[in-house]
Amino acid sequence: MRVAQNSPQTPALCNCAASDKPEKGEPAFPEALAAAAPSRHRPGPRLQSNFTPSSLLRTGQLSNVDLNEDVRELETELPRPYPNEIPHNEKLLSLKYESLDYDNSENQLFLEEERRINHAAFRTVEIKRWVICAMIGILTGLVACFIDIVVENLAGLKYRVVKDNIDKFTEKGGLSFSLLLWATLNASVVMVGSVIVAFIEPVAAGSGIPQIKCYLNGVKIPHVVRLKTLVIKVCGVILSVVGGLAVGKEGPMIHSGAVIAAGISQGRSTSLKRDFKIFEYFRRDTEKRDFVSAGAAAGVSAAFGAPVGGVLFSLEEGASFWNQFLTWRIFFASMISTFTLNSVLSVYHGNAWDLSSPGLINFGRFDNEKMGYTIQEIPIFIFMGVVGGILGALFNALNYWLTMFRIRYIHRPCLQVIEAMLVAAVTAAVGFVMIYCSRDCQPIQGSTVAYPLQLFCADGEYNSMATAFFNTPEKSVVNLFHDPPGSYNPMTLGMFTLMYFFLACWTYGLTVSAGVFIPSLLIGAAWGRLFGISLSYLTKGSIWADPGKYALMGAAAQLGGIVRMTLSLTVIMMEATGNVTYGFPIMLVLMTAKIVGDYFVEGLYDMHIQLQSVPFLHWEAPVTSHSLTAREVMSTPVTCLRRIERVGTVVDILSDTSSNHNGFPVVESNPDTTQVAGLRGLILRSQLIVLLKHKVFVERANLSLVQRRLKLKDFRDAYPRFPPIQSIHVSQDERECMIDLSEFMNPSPYTVPQEASLPRVFKLFRALGLRHLVVVDNRNEVVGMVTRKDLARYRLGKEGLEELSLAQT
User: Among 409, 476, 551, 685, which one has the highest count of C-beta atoms within 10 angstroms of its own C-beta?
Assistant: First the structure.
């Protein structure tokens, strides 16, 4: 290595900024105050902007997103004020989210290692990938079994206690005690579930699907794939379902599968501080993300017994990058997951050789002979899709305003716990009152009700409303699909649909681990069955108007109207019912529900991603954005580094909290002039920190103080939690040393000319999963840098193309 002669003491400053992080200094209390970044000057056409440059915005931190760790460490000594109201505006992009590096840095170390690996070693790596996928499948299946068995036992115990109590007090009066017991049991169980989420790991709240969608899109959500998150998620979802909330345990399985995949593929646990020294080759974002998509698919597969649906879910909702080998591995993980769950549950239920429990929810068999459909029913199904789309849009709109209210006023953890307990108690009270007021009695003989409540019915009869409320939501869905015609009074179904719709809407977004799949199916199954009953009245009891069939279509319409998934949901519903015949009507219903729902409001998951101000990149750039070029979109000015740079300069740049950049173009500059020469490469903050930590300086190499060359293993060992720059000590003498970046920088970063249109830049950035895209002029000199936030800021609003403001939330 050679020491650069007469190197100037300042970093080369190109006229552009490599920011994947905030450009402004961070306010003292990020939860409470956020200054919108001023709009940069752009020579191109003026866009309609929603903010004035001077506007000060105060935004709230969403309960299920945590702050960056480094920031948290620096803030421990500061008191955290909780203002009574936190104004929140969705027309913002948060600067606190980082991007993942999906693109490999092809520096000299990487190329040397790849050249050393022979064909046999590559095959070993490929075998390891298959082994990891098998392990993901097995563990996800076991976690699903654990959740299912614990929920079944605890919920069974709770319902038996309450049923005995109700039966006792029905005879001698004083049913208010039963109401109090039911509400208290629910509220206390949910309190425990909410406390662990609110105080230990807020990112475990909700179903976790929006967070996994963001992760697979390339956004690093803090703590989302930690072991602690998995433990809280599993315990939280058990307590939420047992606590009688209007939630399902299927959605969180997707998040659980993703965490399991991220943990296994790294061969170590940073939470437990244990390194098993296996799978070290996979310690980078590229590999980790592929495994996380396999974990998400295995989660869907375990939840619904739908391995093909799992693969399609990962494809439709998550992974930005796809290839044939990945598809095959993900399908393998999904199949193993379903088989594991099936085997263990079959043994648990005492019929070891009968593999009849492919998923956590089994919709039961739908018979072709009894429940076929005719061509004249297709318009009826399409009409049901329209109803599902409208009801789904209403659900999402109500949930949107409720979430905005929560962000503004219910941001303290203790308030979040109190709200969860209130919802649990109200759910029990509503259920009790509805059962108490219902006079819909059905004969017990021949029915499959788990906990029949007699209440005021005659002997040998049970209260039909109780089968819907006095049960876990999964069982209620199956009852609505398969109970014979005449099992439910239309009034019972109408009241149940109305009440459950508002309860489910209120429950989604609470600080508990819970999914929205099953409540949506239950609401849809209830109004679908009601629709079927009405049809059979109108057609004088025609054989084709089977209420169970319409319950299935209603369930599909409602779920499609809320979450707006099409391809994967069609296959999941087909696999869960075990009937291909319904593929076509289910597809029609889901397509109609999506088209109608999208006309009014976004899908539930996309809406929550937007409310968290996440810089999420959709499949395509906004359609009207061809008039914008890279010059107008890019960040400026960029902090560039020389190929051989002074250590003090590097430390100062990394310590500068006002810029906090993550990628630095490396340029070759002439020491005699201030003119910046052409682009030579790109180096990341994480790489520079490892270099400083190991003190890889030119002088030391010349004096042979450091015998060992840095290997790629040193970078992988530091991944994913690279130490903050504040923890690295550099002495005054060391600051004067030089550091040679040639070996460690990526010498061939992706670049675009400044005249490239926004859709072209977007396509390159999105398809390759980039974190930084360097903008150069015709002399190959750096003029700007495009990062995820520069592209995510532009979106299609009601009045055309909008530019969002960047804020430190």
Answer: 551
Specify the residue for token string 């006079």: 439
> Is the Cβ–Cβ distance between 201 and 224 less than 8 Å?
no
What is d(CA 728, CA 195) in angstroms, rounded to the nearest whole number? 36
Indicate the pLDDT class of residue 708, thresholds 50, 70 and 90.
low
| pLDDT confidence tier of residue 661, bands split at 50, 70 and 90 | confident
Q: pTM value?
A: 0.84
Among 259, 15, 232, 210, smallest CA distance to 97 is for 210
Q: HSE-up of 13 (CA within 13 Å, CB side)?
A: 8
Closest C-alpha among 271, 145, 209 to residue 720 = 271
Model pLDDT, residue 194: 93
Q: What's the CA gap between 374 and 366, in Å, rounded?
A: 16
pLDDT of residue 441: 82
Q: What confidence score (pLDDT) does residue 808 get?
A: 67
291: tokens are 């495994």
d(CA 423, CA 496): 17
State the CB neighbour count (10 A cutoff) for residue 119. 7
To the nearest whole number, what is the mean pLDDT of the chain?
79
Which amino acid belongs to residue 651?
V
409-468 confidence digits (pLDDT tens): 888 899 999 999 999 999 999 988 888 887 778 787 666 677 777 777 777 788 888 777
CA distance 259 to 257: 6
Q: What is the pLDDT of residue 173?
A: 74
Q: What is the pLDDT of residue 13?
A: 52
Instruction: Flag whether pLDDT at 347 surpasses 90.
Output: no
> Which residues lie across from 773 on neighbouring strands?
786
Sign of CA dihedral 459, 462, 463, 469: positive
Q: How far is CA 491 from CA 433, 495, 501, 545, in A?
A: 15, 6, 15, 19
Q: Provide mean pLDDT across the span 140-147.
A: 93
Tokens of 806: 């960047």
φ and ψ at 579, to 5 degrees? Answer: -140, 115
Per the CB < 8 A criterion, the answer to whether 229 and 203 are in contact is: yes
| Total length of the chain | 809
Helices (H) and strands (E) in the chain, counts: 29, 21
Q: Note the pLDDT tens digit of each residue in 517-560.
A: 999 999 999 999 999 888 888 877 665 667 888 899 999 999 99
Whole-angstrom Cα distance, residue 297 to residue 315? 9
Say yes or no to pLDDT of 22 above 70.
no
Measure the CA–CA gap between 353 and 343, rounded to whole angstroms.
Answer: 8
In terms of Cα–Cα distance, which of 96, 80, 72, 126 is closest to 24?
96
The DSSP bridge partners found for residue 34 are 57
Task: Spell 17-32 as b/e; 16+ CB within 10 A means b.
Answer: bbbbbbbbebbebbbb
Return the SS3 of 783: strand
Closest CA relative to residue 249, chosen from 258, 257, 241:
241
Tokens of 668: 């070759």
Token look-up 């109190």 returns 418
Residue with the two structure tokens 């809407």: 505
- How far is it, in rounded angstroms, from Cα 439 to Cα 489? 9
pLDDT reported for residue 74: 35
Q: How far apart are CA 206 and CA 507, in angstroms?
A: 10
Q: Rounded to an integer, what distance in angstroms lies between the CA atom of residue 146 and that of residue 140?
A: 10
